Amino acid sequence: RPLVLLLVALVTLVLGYQATRLEINANFEDMIPQSHPFIKNFFAYRDSISGLGNSLRIVVENRDGDIFDKDYLEVVRQVNDRIYLQPGIDRAWMKSVWTPATRWTEITEEGYRGGPVMPFDYNGSPESVTQFRVNVLRAGLIGRLVGSDYKSSMIVVPLLERIPETGEPIDYAALSDFLEHEVRSLQTDKYRIHVIGFAKLVGDMIDGIRSVLIFMAFSALIATLIIYVYTRDARSTLLLVGAAVLGVLWLLGMLQLTGYVLTPYSVLVPFLVFAIGLSHGAQKMNGIMQDVGRGTHRYVAARYTFRRLFVAGLTALLTNAFAFAVMLLIDIPAIRDLAITTTMGVLILIFTKLILIPVALSYIGVGEKAARRSLETGSATGENGLLGRVWAMIGRCSERRYAIPLVVASIALGIGSFAISHAYLQIGDLDAGAPELRPDSRYNQDVAYINAHYRISGDQFAVMTVTGPEGIRDYETLVEQDRLAWTLQQLPEVIAVESLGSSVPLITMGTNEGNPKWMDIPRSRQVASLTVNTATTNAPELLSGDATVAPVVAYLRDHKAETLARVARVAQDFADERGSEQRQFLLAAGSSGIDAATNEVVAVANYRMLALVYASVIALCYITFRNWRAVIVALVPLAITSFLCEALMVVLGIGIKVSSLPVTALGVGCGVDYALYLVTVQLAAQRSGRSLGDAYRDALNFTGRVVCLIGITMGASVITWAWSPIKFQADMGILLAFMFVWNMVGALLLIPALSHFLLRTQRDAR
Fold first, then answer.
1. What does the pLDDT look like over 125-140, one tens digit per residue?
2. How far apart are alpha carbons 609 and 661 in whole angstroms?
3. Which end of the chain is more exposed for a tag (fewer CB within 10 A), N or C?
């Protein structure tokens, strides 16, 4: 025992120090499926279509005038210059009214004329502002880089995944702080600044982690108070909670040592580890308290409890670990990291809960009054109050008159919820903006403003036209590009479409005195090349340097799941029908193209993950029980709760996406603990000759009370997250609270009811 405590102290010092160095960040590429064909195409041609991946959009609004104001233009210049110098910016593709790459072109009697939209000799005088106005109109920036009401202008800021000078990934927390303190600090009552993009979304979520941590601390406090009210023993309660916190501390230190960072999507993992640890620790504490209450010495009581519950506890933790580990098969790095970190945390609990708590309790013991009270409240027949009557009623659920209606009602509830989830549960985002944040958050208000005033939204779906060298200039390729753009433009979900094939006819018409008869794609390769060069002067992002890649970019009204699915289906049908050896139409780039790929992977992974989770649970339960009927008894309540959780997601308007995909697996992994502790004790009692009713009452009094305690404690703790300013955390809090409570209720009521039909012995038949 001293060696165990010494080892704990040393590991705590090392990992505790490492935990203080843990960083919070995210990576754009970690959120997308690496092997999906869309993403492979995006990675293959990313250098040729820069700006259609991870980017920021900064809009400066003039609330009391328009953009043709020298003071306003000075604010835009300051914003442009500050963000331009920030590390991690892909400066070559950055666009605003102040960047030289934003140009105007016109055709006169003397030929082509053009230049930068912002005049070289701009000095803020009325004449230079007037020239700027003319250039904006010439360049056709309305709805693209200039708001449709002329009250705002946009700065498009493509981001690199790594900073070239250091090779380090972009620190989104630092970038978000820069945007708030250096860019948004230029905001006044007259000039308002709007910022959207993955980097800002992650930055806002990282900022919100402070509130997440507050809610987690509040949840831990609630759990501590409930356990203390139950035990009325301060030292055992503090030991139990301290050991749970110790497991979290070790996990955070291990993450730092193994090179992981905490992301806004994995920040809930530490609390899950705390919850699982609290559940197993409470079982150990309960067993020791009851033995001490019977007069057993604390050292002997600790040994007894260790022997009785070690196998069940180990199996439960291994089941948790396997349930979380199957998420490694999902081809999204963020979910794989979540699987690794959660599995790592559960494996840590094998030591901190199954070994450390009995060893520590063998030294400090429990209060004598608390130990005697545990026996009194542990007897279903000894309680004459409301709790005792409820407990006695639960203990009779194995009787036929209660078992039949319980099983029938549960199966009906499960079938109904499965039908609802199967018919209405959707993949992906169901709301405009960022569902991870509240609808009234500043980020979502910025998204709404930009979508309302610009015809190029932040939701871009790009199809890449790929040919041989200089093949984009061919007549047939430009025609097919134009056809694809027209096909996408017919969809009501599409606001606007940009492509080289659509721009060339307008340039051709302009070179022929504006005669609409010439608004077509030239068949001559020489004329077409000249027209293409002119078109790409103002829009270089529409063609790669070697003329082998040209995107067709559709700007969507939103990135809801049904929107992305329809656009992707139409684009893929066109690519399959019109693609050839000379030219290919490859999906997809842009934020919405990446989202469409992610949704497809999530749709497949959802059912595959559940199947693997339940397969691992079945295997480990069978190893534990050595009885296939007991496995069914343990699994049915879990399955019904999973169906109910998906039906609740339909009611709450939550889609299956990267952030919500692991919830069901986590719920199953945590919920199986209840069944393992109840069924293990029940089977042991039955094998010793007890009847089913007596065996279940033994299980109920020994481990069932703690199952009820932990279910209520965890449910009451996480439901407080519903008031979090981060909607993602609020949704997860509601879903986890539901699964914690319903797994507990299902285990307490359905295990005896199902046991009546599957686990009765000959003694029960007599």
1. 889 989 999 988 888 8
2. 9
3. C
